[in-house]
Amino acid sequence: MKINTNAFYLSIIAGIMIFLPSMLMILFHQSSFTLGIVASSIVIICAYCLVSRKRATLERKTYSLLLSIVFLSLFLLLHFIIVYYFPASGIFPPDVPKFIISFCFIMICTVAAFITKIVIDDTLEHEVHIALRIILYILIFNALISISKIDFFNSGLAKPTFLFQEPSHFALVCAPLLMYFSFTNIKSPLRLSLLLLFGLWGGYIQNFTMILAVLLAYLITTKSLLPSFFIIILMSIPVYIFIESDFFSYYRDRLDLAGDSQNLSSLVLLQGWENSFLTLRKSLLGVGFQQYGTSTLYGDISEKIYSMLHIYINTFDAGSTAPKIIGEFGIFGIVLVLTYLWGWWKIFKLVRRNRFTGSKKFLLFSSVYLSSFLEFFVRGAGYFTPSMFFFIVSVMYFISNNKFKKRVCHEVNY
User: What is the distance between the terminal CA atoms of the chain, rounded to a whole angstrom?
Assistant: First the structure.
């Protein structure tokens, strides 16, 4: 039997990039995904060079993508040079070695993302779908195992999540797959069963990110958007206001975004935005790539967290990705975030219009892009995460297929 090397390699890419970084965090007590993501990217690049027999060619549709990569590289370099040689008053000097190492890392990850995009382009749609189903089965198994709350790897964490360091990391990986399989099972009861399974998991574990991932997948893929939105709001109001219990107090505290909140998750999210805009007031250009937490200013919320824990937490990842971008790139960061939101709205409208007829690849990349909203505004862990890696792949897809409106084709039934 002939084995499709692209489908086989795609399964390897998905498995390595989704599970290896988190496992390395757990086993080696790392505080971020960075080393795991870079190691996974190197494995992907090396494996592609060894496995792929396709002759490297430069297709016309990849010109814009390669130009975008070159422009991004030059932007990161020039921006850092400017903020280094023309520092704003009151801003801590940037960490040059950290920038150099991070720049090399992001280039490695970009090459791996480019390869991933090529592999998906060259893989048949039903083979992509099969690879995603395998990953989904593993994630369901992970969810069921983690319900036991057994710390299999002696991580010492409050909420051990088996192959993932914490529930939020697990939720960010699940989010695009929940949305994708909601699209591909739009008329099947499996859609609601899948969302219910992960929704109940999020409720039992008490993870707000997973609850939002399920709600986002449901709302974006539902047939009637507005009625579904109002039904969720009407169901949530009495639970939020009238039901008093320890179980629901977690969600009330999590939704408290006031500066006097005692909930650490809410404070971390607010801390990211406060430190970002404090820095923006001092430096309109920001502090440079990967300098958040090193050169950015600390506000009252950071000091409140320190008074509670006697340590500063989440000072390098900003709690979510959008404030990190703004803090590091200033007004350019605001433009980048607005561009992201504009792209999100365009893809949202397009995928809603074609959710019954879009190709599986289009639905996959749309799901990855739309679900990244959680990482940008709810719970982020920096640029080097599994979900951000696949977000970069999705951006590459839409850049290289800039006429993707015309490429949305009739979905093949398998």
Answer: 20
Q: Residue length, the chain? A: 414
Rounded to a whole number of angstroms, the CA Rg of the chain reads 21
Measured CA to CA, the distance from residue 225 to residue 149 in angstroms comes to 35
- Cα separation, 217 vs 351, whole angstroms: 12
Distance of alpha carbon 314 from its chain centroid, rounded?
16
Short-list 276, 329, 289, CA closest to 102: 289
Do residues 302 and 255 make contact, with C-beta atoms less than 8 angstroms apart? no
Judge whether residue 239 has pLDDT over 80. no
Residue with tokens 């990190």: 324
Q: Round to whole Å and give the CA distance between 277 and 260.
A: 19
HSE at residue 79, side-chain half, CA atoms within 13 A, is 24
195, 182 in Cβ contact below 8 A?
yes
Closest CA to 143 of 184, 186, 177: 177
Q: What is the pLDDT of residues 39-73, one digit of tens each?
A: 999 999 988 888 766 555 556 667 778 888 899 99
